[in-house]
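Hi R.,

Here are the chain sequences for the assembly we discussed:
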Amino acid sequence: MRPKMLFPQNMAELSVSLAQMTEYSRIIAGGTDIIPAMHDGRIHPDLLVDISNIYETTEIRELDDSVLVGASVCFSILAESQLINNHFPAVAKAASCIGSKQIRNRGTIGGNIANASPAGDMLPPLLALDTDLFVFNKNKKLTTRKVQDILERGLITGEVITAVRIPLQPDNRYNCFSKLGSRNAVSISKLNIAINASYSHKDGLVTDPVIYIGAIGKVPLRASCAENTLNNNPLSAEALLRFAEALSKDVSNAIPARKSLPYKKEAVKGLADDIMLQFSKLTE
Amino acid sequence: MQIKFSLNGRKLCVDTDPAKRLIDFLREDMGLTGTKEGCGEGECGACTVIVDDKAVSSCLMLAGQINNKSITTVEGLGNKNGGLSELQKAFIKHGAIQCGYCTPGMLMSASALLRENTKPTEKEIRTALSGNICRCGDYSAIVAAVLEVATGEKEPKL
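And here is the predicted structure of the full complex:
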């Protein structure tokens, strides 16, 4: 039996719709994860609340200190947004690498976070950029939560992510993303990585790097060993070699008993080369 | 639920279950069986249709989500006189079809690309078609067919 559907048109109607949700109900926007799950019988929602008609979930807007991205903004729009490309190339690149054109035209940033796939491509960039999420509930209360919090604890019944707030970065901070899949397109990440770090043109040093690696655990891993190795170092061949080794150590520490470790601890070195090449180009 | 939408240029208002997948709605309710189901999970592109000028997998969208939107299926590609479109003719000319099951999806992805970019490069064509899988034919023939109609004219020969 198919679920009932509600299509709230504004935030007031959304709160009414959320109040009707049970533990089996689901929020839907793009539907690229939920629809096949329903069709295969993996989930049996009693109610679907479609948030994609609510203006607040569809806009990309620059604020004084951040950029607000509606939860229903699809990956194609994100990848093509000049605002996102200018400030957050890591987010734009991750969005452009997801699935196929058809998936990118439907899948949304909010869905990628709420679905919390271990291989979700939006997650490392959003974590590296210290992103906040706007969470709205059936009592019309709007709160801000961290991405990490949603990934670890999830949403409770009657809550929905309505927007993502990405802080604008200082001029000397650069961010980028890279992924490794089994093929160039329509590929689920075997590893993905995002970096957000400062670079001083005066002394040529990388400082305060924040690095997340995805697809090696339930939630993306903060690559602390790689961060420490890169911090206060130049973008020299030797430093980048040490960075790649440190990243490999982060992977080994995270999944010591996983069968895929021999592959991933080597593959991540290639990803290290790729992302630092991107980083170097951004700093030019 | 009553949904209002445009289907291949015709404005319609239809009462249907909003949680029905778009592919099932098109094939069962609208009788448009040109759209094919392959994997049913957005991997193969066989069910691609155009919604508001964007290629989407109709197995990943629900009927209720096309309210106030414009849908084009492979049946809507032909010219006004009921003949084949230039893109369809190019597919035939280049032998870009073998069993033909992926062809409607290929045509719709190519058509969506040509709506936003009338003169795509081969790389752009391959990127746009990367979500469409053909298991028996020849991708190079498909790309050649799309390149032939990608003339850069203001009104693409779809």
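The first strand of chain B starts at residue 2 and ends at 7. Chain B has a mean pLDDT of 94.

Let me know if anything looks off.

Best,
T.
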